[in-house]
Design brief:
mainly beta, 12 strands, globular, 223 residues, 5% helix, single chain
């Protein structure tokens, strides 16, 4: 590992000390915080860190923050950042629907070159006794172009607090490459507020050429 790559584990630890249970359309309770920090190792020897954080303002509004970091070919890069507000539109029986508006920033190599865009997202979730399902659809505007993002998630509660999660997500051409991915994960609960995620991610179809197989380990937290 080169001198820059060796700092990857240190970055992950520092990010954790500075700090989701993935909620989808659901919002955290008032003043509750949820976070997921994921370290991803690609089979092309590139590495990524993904951070998801949310804070409950009240029972209907939450603030969302997402940030990516990467080490590609020995170079440290700050990835895309998203700051958003999620609003619960309706909650009835096992169904819940929410909307989200966010500002997106990327290209942090020079602040003057930072590009900003916005995203509108609709989320629909259904919870049942042994799991949940969630569907998201978003449109993102960037530099005069636009793209459509999508994500579907199915989760099963296992044992006492463990979870099996299967999801697929992607984006068409516009603001990024036209790539679709699938991911399977197992979340092992440490206690009621923390868990460790082990996952495998792979491009779907021809997207394998642009999205190599990846192994993922993440820390889930609630406080």
């Amino acid at each position: 590992m080169d001198d820059k790559g060796k700092y990857f584990p240190i970055i992950l630890i520092l990010l954790f000390l500075c700090s989701k249970s993935y909620a989808g359309a659901w919002l955290p309770n008032k003043n509750e915080n949820q976070i997921i920090i994921s370290a991803i190792q690609n089979n092309d020897n590139n590495q990524n860190v993904e951070i998801y954080f949310e804070h409950g303002i009240n029972q209907k509004i939450a603030v969302i923050y997402e940030q990516g970091f990467a080490i590609e070919n020995g170079t440290n890069e700050i990835g895309e950042a998203l700051l958003a507000t999620r609003y619960r539109v309706i909650k009835k029986d096992n169904w819940i629907a929410s909307t989200q508006f966010g500002l997106v920033a990327n290209d942090f190599s020079n602040f003057k070159n930072t590009k900003f865009s916005y995203e509108l997202r609709a989320l629909l979730g259904y919870g049942y006794s042994n799991g949940w399902a969630n569907v998201e659809l978003a449109t993102r505007e960037c530099s005069g172009s636009s793209s459509l993002r999508w994500e579907t998630t199915f989760g099963i509660n296992a044992f006492k607090r463990d979870k099996f999660i299967l999801k697929a997500f992607g984006e068409n051409d516009g603001c990024a490459k036209d790539i679709s991915r699938a991911q399977i994960s197992y979340v092992k609960a440490i206690n009621e507020k923390m868990g460790i995620e082990f996952g495998y991610r792979q491009g779907i179809g021809n997207d394998k050429l642009y999205s190599p197989a990846s192994f993922l380990i993440g820390i889930w937290g609630k406080f």
